[in-house]
């Protein structure tokens, strides 16, 4: 299910079709040590059978959702974890609107330090950016309305489309309802929270959180997108690792306490996670009964309520930090899905029934099977042949491309030792990417994606990320290329069809492939020089 509340559009995975690539097919060098900040335990010691977690991994793996990672904690111990290669523990992951919950934490910390209160009027922070006429509804808007997305706006204000500063754009937007009386999912409200924290503390959201939250939780290497005005985007744009999501969620399960120290005030955790706004219907138009719809369970301070008396931080494409206080359980998930309720249902239907209060008898056989299952998780890839007779005739030959809106002038394919190197030539530069033949080949060069990938991808944030790339021959004349920047969510594919001395390139990013967006790049045609 796709929701209008998100900034970016979710991509869908291949499903169960295709081949599974064995561990030997993934040739990676680890860029950073994998985080391992949380204690581990066998599931049985914490009252969960290894078979229950194996069943969950199997259900997820066999679904049509492309999962990237999962981590399950009970009683503060990691009892299950897995990454679908090429995604891996050491990689950060774009968490989209899950970022909002970190913004909420920053607001609570700033309030605790006396910088403002939930009752502070929004206009009091930005007197120099107010419209000429301040409406009664704008004057009545308070910090608490930003937190609960009850600002009174009828729709989100798409900040990226604005030419004026984002704060000024927000303050200038019409407010049709009295604040506190109308809910609309509003990412710009989250940005305003970030702007308020920066205005009152003198630090960006990320810098403010680092000594107060990130360092105590040993969250390293986090980055956060900024607006043109140098303010962290607040409602999206944070990148952290799966274990970092789990640690943050566990902190909230601990009522803000970490290793004996109160990191976030307990009262703020309580206020953030409780139902501050009650829904009478799905705010995004879903038709499921309320008892089975996790978008009708209520909204807190940048957290969603869930079934089973829980709550969650929630990001586009199904980035989840699920907190279940009654079961003393946390579940962190990263994925690319258009049916995020289906993901939550896996947790409710498979995992939750197996959560017991008391420990279970040790079961080393089941535990080893779980480890084997977790270590074998791979994304599905529509595999074909490693080579084609055409490869020998086109290797190292330059195809001159017809004039195109992308500005690409030529393309070259080099085949050697199980690698297809693709070189896209532009006016003043070449862009190179190596694809493993029926295996993921990873590379990292520190360049932003728009300059690293052979062709730009609108659905991807322009950040630096390792890239995994995979190639296969679907038939003698068709080379299929798959691209995954593994510290983001979405990706790209290129179908290259050869005929005599010509090539045709058809692009399909994963948003468009999932039917939730439009592939706007033109088809390219070229001929050997």
Question: How does this structure look, described?
Answer:
This protein is of the alpha+beta class and 529 residues long. Among the domains are: 194 residues, 3-Layer(aba) Sandwich (Beta-lactamase); 140 residues, Lipocalin, CATH 2.40.128. Helix content is 24%, strand content 22%. The chain is built from 14 helices and 22 strands. A hairpin with a 2-residue loop joins β14 and β15. The longest helix is centred in the middle third of the chain and has 15 residues.
Which stretches of 5+ consecutive residues score pLDDT under 50? 1-32
Name of the level-1 CATH class of the domain at 33-91 and 241-375: Alpha Beta
According to CATH, the homologous superfamily of the domain at 33-91 and 241-375 is DD-peptidase/beta-lactamase superfamily
Fraction of residues in β-strands: 15-25%
Provide the helix percentage: 10-25%
- Calculate the terminal CA-CA distance, rounded to whole Å: 46 Å
The CATH architecture of the domain at 33-91 and 241-375 can be named as: 3-Layer(aba) Sandwich
Query: So how many helices?
Result: 14
What is the name of the CATH topology of the domain at 33-91 and 241-375? Beta-lactamase
Rg, rounded, reads: 24 Å
Mean pLDDT: 91
The rough form would be described as globular
Largest sheet, spatial ordering of strands: 13-14-15-16-18-19-20-21-22
Q: Would you count the extended β strands for me?
A: 22
Strand count, sense and closure of the main sheet? 9 strands, mixed, barrel
Structural class: alpha+beta
Quick synopsis:
The chain has 529 residues and is an alpha+beta fold.
